[in-house]
Design brief:
With 794 residues, the chain is mostly helical. Helix content is 73%, strand content 2%. The protein contains 27 helices and four strands. α5 crosses α9, α7 packs antiparallel against α8 and α20 runs parallel beside α22. It starts with a helix and ends with a helix. About 6% of the residues have low confidence. It holds the Pfam family Sec15_C.
């Protein structure tokens, strides 16, 4: 049992030793007490165990010391070395401290000097602060007038009291320099103001013009509501409200206290321009007794600026914005001058502003004349007119005379009309080029109403016809009529806002419309008629079109009357010249019809191929002549829509030209010989011409009027066919002669051609064989004809 307890005791001792090693010393007592409390003699075994543990720790300490001994020795050696260096450093620190103490004495002296300077500076600052209460220390704050008054007070009151001090003498000497400095500074501010006003004049002018437009709109609205006819000329202030000038030059604000408009106020000139530099500089120069110098300088600079403002940009005429900027700058300039005129006393005078305005007005008019002449766009010219009107109204509101500007508008109106005429010339040409020159087909009543709504057409017979039907004029007629009305509207736009009476506007509209009809439209019609591709059918349609346009002129008169409310019975009312325009065009078209018809006849005549030496005729008319007659028949059928006299004249002209051409063919100098057979063939062709004339290709001829066109040919051919020379010679010169229309020279020329043929081809051999007397008769006839011809020439 005792042996079994020994291991347990040993284990307990190990635990106690571990506890002693790991716990605090104050807690060891209870642990040791437990050794004595457990078993008798246990403490001995514990002591043995403790000794054993102590020996173990001693061995470990010894091992550790042996391990770190060399490092300890080395550390001691290093420490001995450091001690020597520490003694050396101590010596250096001591020396440095000594030298620092010596140097600090000089720094201390300098510090005392700095302290004395600081005290002087503080005293000086205090002195300056106190002096600023009485000398012009407010110059940077632009309180120049206060500074001048202070200097005057110093100079007259305070400096004499302390004149014995040197600083007072210095102040007295510097006061004139300060005055000059104030003058220079205020003049510099004025120059800045002049530069600023150049930059802002555009905006000032824009503001003033906008106010004028608003006022004019308001007055126009009130006048319309009240049924008034006049225009109130406004006067505008720089604060955006209308005002009037009192005799003392003050501004009386008509809109004062109007709080309702406060929210709608636009940016005003005073918001854009600070006039205080002008007032300040004027006051300073006045106080210093040099006001005249300032006035001369200000006026000279403003004249220079006026010349710069009046100089337009080279490309001003290209856009409306160029004109608008130009007008804005000018208005801004004179608005500022007007404000200075009324806000200062004598800086600028009314005579000076009038001189500036007269100079400016002459320059403006010259510039507008030059640049408006470059404008070829009517819309741009119209915009220019509107700008000139509002420009004139704005400056008139400030009291500047603008009558010359309204006179200039008449010149601009002529330029506007010229651009309109050029524009409408292109419109008319395009209409004529796209027209098909055929009657307008109308399929339904709606289409008919559309055409009638565009052109005043009324024809009872056509209205009775059922659909589809055709209107006699071509599509260009309603288009031309509509464009003339559009031109009148465009011309009317220029007359708006010119403050002209209805009679004057009516006169302007009628004159411009007359120019359109008599010059532009007439020229387009004349050029159209002369174009080579316009044929007879187109010419016929042009005549019909001009007839309907001529009839519509009275509706244009009514249209203008409805616009202007001026009765056409007024004494000085200008009449439209459309009737003469369309009559002239129609006469030109008729003449062109005659010309082209004759040219076509000549083309057929050129196809003639007679065999002039043929023995006898073919028994039928020539093919070219039958084609010519068929052409004439079809052509004259187209003339049914023409006025009767036109168709009759064209038919008569064609027959006469055909007769003349055939006569010239017989008498052609290059034709040397002609046989009786050729005469017979020629007679057949003339007979066809006479049959055509007697068939009444155009109704309205009385009796044989048309056949008389061929009477010269007929009598000449009958003379040769019948060989009735005895009758011709016997009755020559008698009014009832059978061959009255046969000229002896014509008969002689043709007989000579036949005589030459008989000599060469024995055409008259039968006469020589059967009756030689006939050959002698021919010789006799030739002689008698020659005597007649000679008698006529003598």
């Amino acid at each position: 049992m005792a042996e079994a307890d020994i291991p347990e005791c040993i284990t307990e001792h190990e635990r106690i030793l571990q506890e002693i090693e790991s716990t605090d010393t104050a807690c060891v007592g209870p642990t040791l007490r437990s050794i004595y409390d457990d078993q008798p003699n246990a403490h001995k075994r514990f002591m043995e165990k403790l000794d054993t543990r102590i020996r173990n720790h001693d061995r470990e300490i010894e091992k550790m010391c042996n391990f770190h001994h060399q490092g300890f020795v080395d550390a001691i050696t290093e420490l001995l070395k450091v001690r020597a260096d520490a003694e050396k450093l101590m010596g250096q620190v001591t020396d440095t401290n000594r030298r620092l103490q010596e140097a600090g004495k000089e720094v201390t002296a300098q510090t005392e000097e700095v302290i004395r300077c600081r005290i002087q500076q503080r005293n000086m600052a205090t002195t300056v602060e106190k002096l600023q209460l009485c000398i012009p220390g407010s110059l940077p704050l632009h309180r120049y007038y206060a500074a001048l008054k202070t200097m005057e007070q110093l100079e007259k009151v305070y400096i004499p009291r302390v004149s014995q001090y040197r600083f007072c003498q210095i102040m007295a000497e510097n006061l004139p320099k300060l005055r000059e400095e104030i003058k220079d500074v205020s003049m510099s501010d004025l120059k800045d103001f002049l530069e600023s006003i150049r930059k802002h004049s555009d905006k000032v002018g824009e503001t003033a013009i906008r106010q004028a437009q608003q006022h004019r709109t308001f007055i126009s609205t009130v006048a319309k509501q009240a049924g008034l006819d006049h225009y109130t000329k406004p006067v505008f202030s720089l604060n955006g409200r209308a005002h009037s000038h009192t005799p003392n030059g003050l501004l009386m604000d008509d809109g004062a206290g109007d709080e309702e408009d406060a929210d709608d106020e636009i940016l005003t000139a005073q918001d854009l321009v600070d006039f205080s530099p002008v007032y300040r500089c004027l006051h300073i120069y006045t106080v210093l007794g040099d006001r005249e110098t300032f006035e001369n300088y200000y006026r000279k600079q403003r004249k220079k600026q006026a010349r710069l403002v009046l100089q337009p940009q080279a490309n001003m005429h290209e856009t409306v914005e160029g004109y608008r900027r130009y007008f804005n700058q000018i208005v801004g300039f004179f608005v500022v001058e007007d404000h200075v005129l009324h806000a200062t006393q004598g800086l600028v005078t009314r005579a000076f502003t009038d001189e500036l305005w007269n100079m400016a007005l002459s320059k403006i008019i010259a510039v507008l004349r030059t640049h408006s002449s470059y404008c070829d766009d009517p819309d741009l010219v119209l915009e220019l007119k509107n700008l000139i009107v509002i420009f004139a109204d704005t400056l008139q509101g400030y009291g500047f005379p603008v009558s010359r500007l309204f006179d200039l508008l008449f010149e601009v109106r002529d330029q506007y009309n010229e651009t309109l005429l050029k524009k409408w010339a292109l419109v008319f040409r395009e209409i004529f080029e796209t027209d098909n020159y055929s009657p307008i087909p109308v399929e339904t009543e709606e289409e008919y109403k559309v055409v009638v709504s565009r052109f005043p057409f009324h024809d009872a017979e056509i209205e009775k016809q059922s659909f589809p039907k055709k209107l006699p004029m071509s599509q260009s007629v309603p288009q031309i009529y509509s464009q003339v009305k559009e031109f009148i509207y465009a011309s009317l736009k220029f007359s708006e806002s010119l403050h002209r009476s209805s009679t004057e506007i009516d006169d302007m509209l009628r004159k411009s419309t007359n120019l359109l009809l008599t010059r532009t439209l007439s020229s387009c019609l004349q050029n159209l008629i002369k174009k080579p591709h316009i044929g007879l059918t187109e010419l016929v349609q042009i005549i019909i079109n001009t007839t309907h346009l001529e009839q519509a002129c009275r509706y244009l008169e009514e249209f203008i009357t409805n616009i202007t409310n001026v009765s056409p019975e007024t004494v000085h009312t200008t009449r439209l010249y459309g009737l003469s325009t369309f009559k002239d065009a129609r006469h030109a078209a008729e003449g062109e019809i005659y010309t082209k018809l004759n040219q076509k006849i000549d083309e057929f005549i050129q196809l003639a191929d007679y065999e002039w030496c043929m023995a006898e005729s073919d028994g039928r008319a020539s093919g070219y002549l039958m084609d010519l007659i068929n052409f004439l028949r079809s052509t004259f059928q187209v003339f049914t829509h023409l006025p009767g006299k036109v168709a009759q004249t064209a038919c008569m002209s064609a027959c006469k030209h055909l007769s003349t051409s055939l006569m010239q063919m017989l008498l052609d100098s290059e034709l040397k010989q002609i046989s009786m057979g050729a005469i017979q063939q020629f007679n057949l062709d003339v007979m066809q011409c006479e049959l055509f004339a007697s068939s009444e290709p155009v109704p309205g001829f009385q009796g044989d009027t048309l056949q008389l066109a061929f009477i010269d040919l007929r009598q000449l051919l009958d003379l040769f066919m019948v060989w009735d020379w005895s009758t011709y010679l016997a009755d020559y010169g008698q009014p009832n002669s059978k061959y009255l229309r046969v000229n002896p020279a014509t008969a002689l020329a043709l007989l000579e051609k036949m005589k030459d043929t008989s000599k060469k081809n024995n055409i008259f051999s039968q006469f020589r064989k059967n009756d030689r007397d006939k050959q002698k008769l021919v010789e006799t006839v030739v002689k008698q004809l020659r005597s007649l011809v000679n008698g006529m020439s003598s």
